[in-house]
Amino acid sequence: MDLDRILTLFDAEVRARPAAAPGTKMERLGALVLLTGAFNYVSSWDLRADTVQAAVRDCAAHFRDRGEELLWRVYDHDEPSRLSTCLADEGFDPDPSGTLMFLDLDDAPVIAPIDGAEVRRVRTLEDLDDFIQANGQAFGQEEPWQRAAFGQRLGDPDFVLFTAYAQGRAAASARLEMAAGRSFGLLFGGGVAPAYRGLGLYRALVAARATAAKARGLRYLSIEARDTSRPILERLGFVPAVREVTWVLRP
Q1: Which domains does the chain have, with CATH numbers?
Q2: Alpha helices (H) in the chain, listed in sequence order
Q3: pLDDT in tens, the chain (251 residues)
Q4: What is the DSSP-derived secondary structure letter of residue 129?
Q5: Phi-psi region of 145 (alpha: psi -120 to 50; beta: other; left: phi over 0)
Q6: Contact 190/174 with Cβ under 8 angstroms?
Q7: Are 90 and 57 in contact (CB under 8 A)?
Q8: How far apart are CA 206 and CA 28, in angstroms?
Q9: What is the enclosing helix (H) or strand (E) of 41?
Q10: Measuring CA to CA, which residue among 198, 3, 55 is closest to residue 114?
């Protein structure tokens, strides 16, 4: 896998032209490209060593004035090199780091059926309730906002939710987001309830999303992997590209 080429493509397709979900919009603030609305996120930028401090300061002031949280994800290959220092100077706090990983869908895993388990695509609000329940069990608390945010997108072919069931119970969940003109499907939120870990449900959810992305004609999957997930993903064929840190400006 030519990681330099794929990173360049990812930066151009996903970061420089972010897809705005319902409740968000893409906008520019000086040299920054952002998604704003339901959440605020700096996706891309064109900054130099002599402009970065002022740009970060102005951006931080803008969102502090609005009383809103702002996320700014920085990858190891991003320029300028002083960016993370500037973010810290302006009051951004770093979340735990992760790894951006890619899977070439030509090498997508084939997962054998798991006895007593089934992966289903979320198509109805009743299905969505199971998804939210499984997600809450996996990550420690339910997120009620998901019902409104995700419910309006159940018919969207670029937004796919899956729930894995074990012994008839909702046990794991995961999300896939796609967009026209992209080569990448983006993986989010894969998690398994503690009582059902070790059965292969996480791998099954990756395989289901890979199948859905390949059916849409995409070439790659990308994921921001936690250190706990990275070994599993590597065994499934994902290749680590760069480390990343999400910096958070809290109101």
Answers
A1: 3-98 (no CATH), 104-243 (3.40.630.30)
A2: 3-10, 52-66, 83-89, 125-139, 145-151, 201-215, 230-235
A3: 899 999 999 999 999 999 998 889 999 999 999 999 989 999 999 999 999 999 999 999 999 999 999 999 999 999 999 999 999 999 999 999 999 999 999 988 788 888 889 999 999 999 999 999 999 999 998 888 899 889 999 999 999 999 999 999 999 999 999 998 899 999 998 999 999 999 999 999 999 999 999 999 999 999 999 998 999 999 999 999 999 999 999 99
A4: H
A5: alpha
A6: yes
A7: yes
A8: 34
A9: strand 41-45
A10: 198
Which residue bears the tokens 């006895």? Answer: 115
Amino acid code (one letter) for 246: T
Phi/psi at 121 (nearest 5 deg)?
-75, 140
Place of tokens 């059916």: 215
Say which residues have a Cβ less than 8 Å from residue 11's Cβ, sequence separation at least 6: 44
DSSP letters spanning 184-251: EEEEEEEEE-GGGTTSSHHHHHHHHHHHHHHHTT--EEEEEE-TTTHHHHHHTT-EEEEEEEEEEE--
Structure tokens at 163: 């729930």
Q: Structure tokens of 139?
A: 């990550």
